Amino acid sequence: MSTPRSSSISPAKLALPIITLVLALVAVVVGYVQTTTGLADLSKALESQTATATDVYGGQSAIGVASAILSAGIIGVVISLAAIGILIGLNGFRRDAVIEDVILDEEFLDDDDVDGIDELELNRAAAPAAAAPAAAASTAPVHAEPVIVTEPAADPAEPTEPNAPEAPTAR
């Protein structure tokens, strides 16, 4: 048995960043072409000494508008790429995955040894550690039961003050 996972992102939402990216790239190209042709026309008119006020001031305004279109296109490309990155992070472009149901056998559920570690091997490995000298007693074996201590811990030692230089005094 398998159940398909439903996607919360509609196909229209998936297509929107891609359409925006295409439109932004068109705006970049149009803005670039208009800006470069406007600059070339203005330079040619100024170098030929025949430029009129309309050529100069109108050309500057046209270049300003074209550069605004170019800037808007660049910003649109960045935003649409960020949106596409977010959708990729959310697995928006992935087809619906099929999640298979896990069926557990009765034999697996009745087995107490689900961790896959054989306790007999641990007991055999811990036996030489129990016979070790008292110096090694500080490290408890893995299978040891928790120890409950009923006697109080040793009194803490008096803290010693560090030898720090005296702070300067105000005069």
Automatic annotation (TrEMBL):
Residue spans crossing the bilayer: 12-33, 62-90
The name this protein goes by in its record: Dinucleotide-utilizing enzyme
Record carries keyword Transmembrane: yes
Alphabetic keyword roster: Membrane, Transmembrane, Transmembrane helix
Biased amino acid composition, Low complexity: 150-171
Annotated region described as Disordered, given as residue ranges: 145-171
